[in-house]
Each structure stands twice: as structure tokens, then as C-alpha cells.
Amino acid sequence: MPLNPNRKPSLPTPSATAEPEPAVSVSRLEAPVSAVPFVGPERQKALASVGVGNVAELLEFYPRRYLDRTRIMRVCDLREMEHEVTIVGTVAFVQLKRTRRGKSWLIAGIDDGTNVLNCLWFQGISYWQKQMREGETVAVSGIAKDFDGWRIIHPAVDRLGEDGDRELYNTGRIISLYPGGLDLRRVGLESSTFRRIMRAALNIAQRELIEYLPEEDLNALGALPRAEAFEQIHFPSDYEHLQAAWQRVRYEELFFYQMLFAYRRRLNRITPGGIAFDTVGPITKKVLKALPFELTEGQKKVLHEIRSDLQGSVPMQRMLQGEVGSGKTTVALLAMAMAADSGYQSAFMAPTELLAQQHAQNLAGPAEAAGLRIRLLRGKQKTVERRDILSAIAAHHVDIVVGTHALLQEKLTFPKLGLVIVDEQHRFGVEQRSILRSKGTRPHLLLMTATPIPRTLRLAQVGDLDESILGELPGGPRQVITVRRSEMERAKIYPFLIEQAKAGGRVFIICPLVEESEKSDIEAATEYYTRVARGVLREVGVGLLHGRMNSEEKQKALDKFRDGKTPILVSTPVVEVGVDIPEAAVMLVENAERFGLAALHQLRGRIGRKGQKAWFILLPGSKITPEAEERLNALLATDDGFVLAQRDLELRGSGEVFGTRQSGEFELRYSNPVRDEALLLAARERAFALVEKDPELQNCPLLRERFRKKHAPKLGLLAGG
Questions:
Q1: Which helix (H) or strand (E) holds 356?
Q2: Three-state DSSP state, 709
Q3: Are 222 and 192 in contact (CB under 8 A)?
Q4: Which residues contact 471 (CB under 8 A, 6 or more apart)?
Q5: Torsions phi, psi of 552, nearest 5?
Q6: Would you say residue 336 has pLDDT above 90?
Q7: In whole angstroms, what is the distance from residue 614 CA to residue 248 CA?
Q8: Residues in a beta bridge with 339
Q9: Where are the alpha helices (DSSP H) in 271-310?
Q10: Number of Cβ within a 10 Å radius of residue 82
Q11: What is the rounded average pLDDT for all residues in the chain?
């Protein structure tokens, strides 16, 4: 939201006449952090541990939150509320208490001059006993409850320091509160000290905080110029200026992110040496003829898009999204047939040996019928077998290689690698994809995922890729009924499972990954299997599948399940990705509240794949959080993967989503694709237009220098190299 054009300029902050500037011979922003007053050797070392080595990095060590004096409550005014409150006062006492059973707890009284608030800790007692010092001024935040006096259990605590800080919060200003790990606190780097250091750092660097983003962009977005943004982030004068400062930080991050995507796409387009598959030959036609079904309209459309890419000399970089069972593997096979028609090999990488083996089996029939030579490369193959496969690939006696991380080994060489396909691409890091692509000369790349990605997240994660979507399922929508049952109904569930198994269906029972404090998920699944196999399900065969089994054991368990020898399979979530049992008609998910929304949707996609009526049974435990309730309700409301993906993003936030990404990727630190969608779209439009119009950034020398120094090295990582 743009700023009020009539707003007053930023107010000067307290201590603006801070320490004199030291003489710095190099760029002030690049000067070591020890050049800043109050930063000695010990503090320099502690700051280095959190990635702060110079003045510029210090200024980008942003507050984690803010304390607004106008929103602080007095103890005498407290009342029962559902939201957090903040109290500022002096630590009046700190006492260690013990229950009759010998358990310890800590209580600290915070006196704000109107009454005393009690703060209680039942964990981390020794730590807080050292941190809470009598006579020190602190701000404590949390849910206040009245229980023989007001109390907050396990509050957030910020130490405000001496009289200088007391003057700050008494003026009604907004106070910056900084991240404070143990290493920082050991050397006195708390919020009060950080504010003194930041004041000095701003004085040092003020003249070099030159703007490099286009002024018209900042004005249109209601964002502050660079120097003023730093000032307001560390010493906000009011919330309007603070919002405008963060608007600038988030836009800058998204803008440079999208510039990377724009350059990646441009480099892919202008770099010579791409492979054009210009032959539409007999192999592709033979594969089509060997398929036991007709292609859906969605598959035909996607294949047309892929064919168009493959015929050009610019390497394809395409993301194929599709629900579980939408026919992505068939599309991949036909793309690999197109490569073979032009004399090129293909590599198909899957995240697990179980999935790679299944892909190889499913591809084998139509591939071999068309004369394609296909081999499976696994990590745990015998030496002689592995040597034979590697030799065959190197001699171009293999057209399609299916494998896991084994495809990344140095000994594997392709004489004519033309197409790389990565299934469940989010399970691989960009460096791994780059290694595989480097085994050819600019081969085409097709990434596939059965986890739908909302548009904002796709633009933020893989903004340089073209996109194809398989939106329909072969045979039409599935008849999967999703129901939620309670523990009281468990006795009725098992007879239903037995009935379905005896009727020829296959039944999954999924045991969740357990909490860290409990036994391992393998032990939990094994115990569950033993209990039901010898008990309530003893009249039918019951199998067991978990992640620690070797490939042969997993395959044997799945074969017995598929053949009906053990029509009920107790499993950990290892079946979430890729397990294809068309006869599976029922899935019972134990402790369903422990699963994420995307994982539950993936599991649901494993049943009813022949079009038969199927049941997905959610059986949550007794302790369900409000967030878990929302996940379960969302799953009950729809089976649309893209709707659920958007809901999952809203529930979890992009921070957690990005937190699962592999190291080495460019991660968002300050912006959020959901919250900042308008900023993301504006940044993308501006970045792509700028790179297209002025790729050398000749008209933007300051922007060019900033991009070259801080962001350009990441270009090799995006989209798998």
C-alpha cells in the first residue's frame, strides 16, 4: 500500500549523535564489523557465527520483532485475553520452587509499578535462572492468565538494559528487538547493545547507502529508499515508515530473485550447442501402438508442448505437474521415445529405489515392444551387474537409463545424452540435477511432480521454467470416499478392512512418523503389524513395509501385496511416492493429524486407481491441534490437488515450505509469496522486462554492480544448472 504522500519525513532517532566515525581505508560497507564501536574481538567472533562479517552484513542483521510502547499493557489493566500481551517492568525476584514430588520450576516477578506479574518456567530452568537478574528491566510477552495473581507461562523475554533503553521505551517509540542466540548473549550482544551498535554502523555507512533500485519502482510500491529503509528498520519512527521500509526489503529480495530467473532463461536461449530432436520416427509410433490405453486430451496437449520444445535448439526446461495417476510416466516415456528417434539417450531419475524399480517395470513393456533398450541402475547392485550396465550405457547399447542417485556417479558416462527427466523433483537438490545434466551436452530437462505447486510459489521457486499441467485423470475422476473416524469407531473399522480384503481389494494401513521422543517409526509400525496380524486381522494375510528394508525385501512385500497373498499391508509413509497397486481400494491412516496436507493427498492418490470405489479413512489421535483440524477438514472438503496445495501454503506459510528445500538454492529470507504476491508479480514483471531490454544493465550501473557482487554467482544453481 503506497505511503501517504503528505506524510512527514522520518523523525530523528535517539542517540543520533552517536560515537564518532572511525577511519576506514576500504569501502565503509565492506569494512570488517570490528570497525564499528562496541564490537571487539569476542563480539566479532560471535557475529561471524551468525553470518555477520562486515558493516553491510551487520546492517542486514534485522530485528526479529518490535516492541511498541503504545501497545504495552500495565499489570493493573490486565484481563483474560486470547492474544499475547507485553509487560515492561523490573525483575523484582527470582525463586526456584519444588513440588512435593521433587519437580522443579522457576518463578520471576516482574514489577511494572502498578502490580507484579509472575513468569513461570517448567523447562530450561537453569538457563532462565541465569538470565533473569533482579533489578534488570525486561519486556515479557505471552498469554496472561489470572490464577491467584496474573501469570505468564514460558514467556518471551527481551532484556532492555540500562537507563538509555528505559528512556527509549518511555518516549512511546517502537523499539527493535534482535535475534539473540546463546553465543551472542554470552558476549553481551542483546537488543540494547545491538541498538547502540546499529546506531554507530549507520553513522559509519550513511554516505555509502546509495540507491540502486529504480526510483519509480519504489514510489509505485510505497517503499522507502535504501538509506531511509535501513534507518527505519533499526530505529522506526512509526508503523507507517516501518511498513514502507520492510516493503523495500521484500521487494528488493524478490526483484533480484526474479532477475536471476530472467538471466537463467536468457542464457539458456542464447547459449549455442543445444540439441534439436528433428526426427519424428518409428519408435515413438511403436510406443503409442504398444500402450494398452488411449492418451487423454491432457496428455496429448502436454506432448505437443514437449515436442515443440524438443524440436528447437534451445534446451527444454519444463516442469510437468499432475495428480497422482494422471499419466506423467506415459508422457515421460513418449518424450524419451522422441529422443531415441533422433539417436539420443535418456536418463530418468527417481528419488527412491522402490520408485525407480517400479518405473523400470512399468516402462519396460511398451518400451521393449518399440525396440527401446532400458536398464535400471541402483545403488545396491552387484559389482559385475553394475559394470555391465555402465559399459552398455557408455557403448550406447542402452536408450533409457532409470535410476536413483546412482545416476550421479562419476563412472557413469553417456555418449549421447539428450534428455534428463527428474521425477518428484522437489526431493532432489539443484546441484544433483546439475550433475546429471552435465553428463550430456546441454540436454533437455523435464522435471515432474505429483505435488501441485500454487502459482505464487512456482514463480518464487522455479520461475525460469515453462509449465505443463495434466489436469485430468485417465478414465475420469476417481471414486474415492474420504471419511474421518474416531477412536471409538475403531472396532467397526477392522471388520470393514477384512471384508474388503476378502472381496479381492487391497488395503493399506499407514502408520505415521512418530515423535522424536517416542520409539522409532520402524519400531512403531512393526509393533502395530505384530499386534494386528496376530489379533484382529489374523484371518487374512498381513504384510509389512518400511524404509529400512532393502530393495529386495521391499519388492517382495509389494509383490505379495499385489498378488493378494497378503491383501493388507501395514506400512510407514514410504508408499507416499510412486507405489502403484491398481487393486488398492482402502487406506486407513493412523494418527492422521501428524501428516501434512500434501502427504495426505499423496497417500489418497494411491487408492482407487482402476476407477473402483475406494475409501480413504482418517483416524486421528486424541490430541489434535487447531492447525491439524484445519488440515483434516480441508482434505474432507475437496480432492482437488491445486486447491489443497494453496490451502497447505496458507496454513503452513512459505517459510516452512522453503525450509524443506535443498541447501545451495537461493532462499527467501524476508518475503513470503502468499503475503507478498503483489510484490512478487511486480518484481517479476520489472526484472524480466529489464533483462530483455538492457541485458548488460548499461543504463543501471549501480544495479549492475550490486547484482554482479551479490547475486550473479547463484546463476549456475537455478533450475539445475
A1: helix 353-369
A2: helix
A3: no
A4: 298, 322, 323, 326
A5: -65, -40
A6: yes
A7: 51
A8: none
A9: 282-290, 297-310
A10: 5
A11: 84
Count of beta carbons in the 10 Å neighbourhood of residue 661: 15
- What is the four-CA torsion angle of 220, 669, 351, 633, rounded to 10 degrees? -80
**Rounded mean pLDDT, 89-99:** 92
| pLDDT 10s digits, 556-578 | 998 999 999 999 999 988 765 66
Whether 325 contacts 473, CB under 8 Å: yes
Task: List residues bridging with 509 in a β-sheet.
Answer: 570, 588
HSE, CB side, 13 Å, CA atoms: give it for residue 544.
18
Domain residue limits, the chain: 66-177, 282-311+327-449, 480-638
**CATH code of the region 282-311+327-449:** 3.40.50.300
Distance CA 521, CA 443 (A): 40
What confidence tier does 45 reach under pLDDT thresholds 50, 70, 90? very high
Residue carrying C-alpha cell 539420443: 344
Take residue 585 and report the three cell numbers written for it: 481400494
β pairing state of 156-161 and 65-68: unpaired
Reported as half-sphere exposure (CB side, CA atoms, 13 A), residue 646 has a value of: 10
Task: For the domain made up of 480-638, give the CATH fold.
Answer: Rossmann fold (3.40.50)
Q: Which three cell numbers stand for residue 664?
A: 545451495
**Angle formed at CA 248 by CA 31 and CA 171, multiple of 5 degrees:** 80
Per-residue pLDDT, averaged over 414-419, amounts to 94
Q: What percent of the chain has pLDDT over 70?
A: 87
- Rounded-to-integer distance, Cα 228 and Cα 173, Å: 17
Which pLDDT tens digit goes with each residue over 656-681? 433 334 333 446 788 887 788 889 89
d(CA 188, CA 532): 57
Q: Is the pLDDT of residue 649 over 80?
A: no
Residue from 379, 386, 448 nearest 419 by CA = 448
Q: How confident is the model at residue 20 (pLDDT cuts 50, 70, 90)?
A: very low
pLDDT at 616: 96
> pLDDT tens digits, residue range 356-395?
888 998 899 999 999 999 999 987 788 899 899 999 999 9
Report the run of H or E that residue 255 belongs to, with start and end: helix 239-270
Distance CA 392, CA 387 (A): 9
Q: Is 554 in contact with 330 (CB distance < 8 Å)?
A: no
Q: Is residue 137 pLDDT above 60, yes or no?
A: yes
265: how many CB neighbours lie within 10 A of its CB?
21
Give CA separation, 547 vs 49, 82, 379, 541, in Å.
36, 42, 15, 21
Query: What DSSP string runs through 169-212?
Result: HHTT-EEEE----HHHHHTT-SHHHHHHHHHHHHHHHGGG----
How far apart are alpha carbons 315 and 321 in whole angstroms?
19
Domains 282-311+327-449 and 480-638 share a fold: yes
To the question of domain 66-177 being in CATH 3.10.150.10, the answer is no
First-to-final CA distance of the chain: 37
Cα–Cα distance measured from residue 242 to residue 253, given in angstroms and rounded to the nearest whole number: 17
Quick one: average pLDDT of 603-619?
90
The whole-model pTM stands at 0.70
pLDDT at 417 over 60: yes
